[in-house]
Amino acid sequence: PALLTSFHSYLLTPNLRILVVIGAGLSAASGLATFRGAGGHWRNFDAMTIATPEAFNADPGFVWQFYQMRRRAAFAAKPNPAHYALAEAAKRCRDFLAASQNVDGLSRRAGHPEDKIEYIHGNLSTLSCFQGMDYGGFVESCGWKAEDQTQDLPIPDEGVVPREMIPKCPNCKTGLQRPGVVWFGESLDEKVMDRIQDWLEVQGPSLCLVVGTSGRVYPAAAYAKAVKKRGGKVAVVDIEDRGAEEGADWSFVGDAAVVVPEILKPLMERPEVV
Ligand code: APR
Predict the structure, then answer these.
(1) 163-199: string of b/e by CB count within 10 Å (b at 16+)?
(2) What residue numbers does the annotated binding site for Zn(2+) cover?
(3) How far does the centroid of ligand 1 lie from the alpha carbon of residue 239, in Å?
(4) CA distances from 96 to 58, 118, 186, 268 (A)
(5) What is the pLDDT of residue 37?
(6) Separation CA 10–CA 22 (nearest Å)
(7) What pLDDT does residue 203 have?
(8) β-pairing, 122-130 with 176-181?
(9) Torsion over CA of 38, 31, 179 and 143, rounded to 10 degrees?
(10) Mean pLDDT on 205-221
(11) Residues comprising the binding site?
């Protein structure tokens, strides 16, 4: 309809700069639970007893049992047409950056170019070292990280898990291995934040495409308004009508797996940019 036609013509603006903000709704069609909608993780668990360094410090086994389930689900899931459409659009637009809040690895598995996406909340296939909370309540770690680690940890799926059963950091031998995802209260990677901030500062016609996020968690929740403030436009794709909340110029209501390929179609005709 008219909405799609006007979006498609804006997509063809010369030198358009695109920032995509990605949330759990992008992976819903791949069968992965979101956080706050029906069946969402935070409907079944209290985030503060699971997704914080304090929670891990208090009961690492309980937290690992939650992340072990999510790791298995994510590694068994398949990218859906929206992951592929975003990956193909990224290959065809010179100035394209995705800020993904998702840790499920599906954008990577859809072939999304690594230099055109930032995984701002980490990845479930990453493990890192947790030495505990220092006096300032900051997590200490030796800096060890393991990427692409997808096999199960030797932790039972239920029952109390004694601390000694949690695998130790192979580097410092004192820290515990933890999921390589950002928890509430933890800071995001500085250089990732700087890269997105730099992207926002550069002038020129721009578009913020918000896909499948409830806009509850910062800094990702602020990007659409930042683009709008600098004269850019905002498009929202969500199963609910979230357009008004984001001050969107276009609000596409539906399953991302169906809507995203449709709205990005004009970009697919372009050659890949090297
Ligand atoms: N297609 C499009 N959007 C969908 C679909 C779908 N099939 N299914 C659900 N949605 C939308 C919901 O309407 C909601 O707006 O996706 C959004 C999911 O919101 P949340 O569950 O809050 O997930 P998200 O916004 O990604 O959470 C952000 O919160 O817990 C932290 O770190 C975690 O990265 C996560 C962050």
Answers:
(1) eeebeebeeeeebbbbbbbbbeeeebeeebeeebeeb
(2) 129, 142, 169, 172
(3) 10
(4) 41, 11, 27, 14
(5) 87
(6) 20
(7) 87
(8) antiparallel
(9) -120
(10) 95
(11) 129, 142, 169, 172
40-44: long-range contacts, CB 8 A cutoff, minimum separation 24: 41/70
Pocket test for ligand 1, best of 118, 209, 217 (most atoms within 8 A of CB): 217
Could you report the per-residue pLDDT of 29-58, keeping only the tens digit for each? Answer: 999 999 998 889 999 899 999 999 999 999
Mutate to test the pocket of ligand 1, among 27, 36, 67, 187 (most ligand atoms within 8 A of CB): 36
Q: Indicate if the pLDDT at residue 274 is higher than 80.
A: no
205 pLDDT tier (thresholds 50, 70, 90): confident
Ligand 1 site: residues with CB under 6 angstroms? 23-25, 28-29, 34-37, 40, 47, 101, 121, 212-214, 216-217, 237-240, 242, 255-256
Predicted TM-score (pTM) of this structure: 0.97
- pLDDT reading at 136 higher than 90: no
Cβ-based neighbours of 212, under 8 Å, separated by 6 or more: 22, 23, 24, 25, 26, 27, 28, 34, 237, 238, 239, 256
For 8-23, the pLDDT digits (tens) are 999 999 999 999 999 9
Distance CA(127)–CA(109), nearest Å, equals 18
**Catalytic status, residue 121:** yes
Q: Does the model's ipTM exceed the 0.95 cut? A: yes
